[in-house]
């Protein structure tokens, strides 16, 4: 599965290439609870087709009625999809919040951009597919759009004159090890919009991989990490339990900006790994501070499928900047459980 923003932009481009009227909708502000975060986008065609979302569905239905039904005195749908950018606010009152299925107290403000330029959409999509971060600046008064390169994934900014939304390439995941657990994690990551690559030089494991939509590498894992060039939108997970494959790859990953670097294994295995890295590779507790293990949050998982849920939950929490309570850490939770039940 592609990055959701890219899916929306590609479909919008298809509509505009076909000379269909269309609108790009951006969640500009929220108050209280909201179904979708600030910066989320959806696109709507004059036919009523929608891709992406800004709510649980009720607001999308209202937008379809508002902008794809024939206007008074018109006999063609989509005629309302024209003009300068328009602000719309939903959930101002409790009754309206209930009507549109918004959480209690939720209000959101949208910006609607009518008939975005197809060439600029093409340029934005090409930059994202190259792995660039792109700042899209919309003039709120005229609708004119400019694209700017950026090095930081800034949050959406908006004022009376402009809206600035930063788009980035898909988050990437590099899995070291093509075993069963890797297949479960890869499947979950793909459904969460990650581009997944699996590396395993062991033919007996690599040949048994069945998950589709995953890039494959057969280099030794430390070389693969160098080739892969992890950045701040990348996570690296070592899953083989084999120090010859995992350790050097993890050390290489720790030298990068990867937002998550971790390894599967028991508490004793992970303690032994840290000891090896300190004794034989000149590491320190400080240099290994970013190394996670045992990876995942504690949910009592036993099977590969359950473990993958645990691991993916932790990866997403770190990606989204959500601090996890100490008692959800696998090592801490298991130690506490053993103390409580000696």
UniProtKB/TrEMBL annotation:
The protein's name in its UniProt record: XdhC family protein
Organism in which the protein naturally occurs: Orrella daihaiensis
Start and end residues of each XdhC- CoxI domain: 15-69
Signal sequence residues: none
InterPro entries for the chain: MoCofactor_Util/Proc, XdhC_CoxI, XdhC_Rossmann_dom
Lineage: superkingdom: Bacteria
Domain XdhC Rossmann: 173-315
Matches recorded under Pfam families: XdhC_C, XdhC_CoxI
């Amino acid at each position: 599965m592609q990055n959701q923003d890219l899916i929306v932009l590609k479909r919008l481009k298809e509509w505009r290439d076909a000379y269909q009227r269309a609108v790009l909708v951006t969640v500009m502000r929220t108050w209280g609870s909201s179904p979708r975060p600030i910066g989320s986008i959806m696109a709507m065609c004059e036919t009523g087709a929608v891709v992406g979302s800004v709510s649980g569905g009720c607001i999308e239905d209202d937008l379809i009625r508002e902008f794809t039904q024939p206007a008074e005195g018109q006999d063609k749908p989509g005629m309302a999809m024209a003009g300068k950018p328009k602000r719309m606010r939903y959930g101002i009152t409790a009754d309206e919040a209930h009507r549109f299925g918004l959480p209690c107290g939720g209000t959101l403000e949208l910006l609607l951009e009518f008939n975005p330029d197809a060439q600029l959409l093409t340029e934005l999509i090409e930059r994202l597919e190259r792995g660039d971060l792109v700042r899209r600046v919309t003039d709120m008064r005229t609708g004119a759009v400019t694209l700017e390169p950026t090095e930081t994934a800034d949050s959406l900014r908006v004022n009376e004159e402009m809206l600035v939304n930063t788009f980035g390439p898909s988050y990437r995941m590099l899995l070291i090890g093509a075993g069963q657990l890797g297949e479960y994690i890869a499947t979950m990551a793909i459904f969460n919009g990650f581009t997944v690559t699996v590396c395993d030089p062991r033919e007996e494991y690599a040949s048994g991989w069945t998950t589709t939509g995953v890039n494959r590498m057969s280099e030794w894992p430390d070389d693969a990490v160098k080739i892969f060039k992890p950045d701040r939108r990348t996570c690296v997970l070592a899953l083989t339990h084999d120090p010859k494959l995992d350790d050097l790859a993890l050390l290489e990953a720790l030298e990068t900006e990867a937002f998550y670097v971790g390894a599967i294994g028991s508490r004793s295995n992970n303690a032994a790994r840290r000891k090896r890295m300190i004794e034989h590779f000149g590491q320190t507790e400080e240099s290994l501070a970013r190394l996670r293990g045992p990876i995942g949050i504690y949910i009592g998982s036993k099977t590969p499928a359950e473990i993958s849920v645990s691991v993916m939950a932790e990866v997403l929490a770190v990606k989204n900047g959500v601090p996890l309570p100490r008692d959800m850490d696998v090592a801490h939770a298991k130690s506490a459980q053993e103390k409580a039940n000696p």
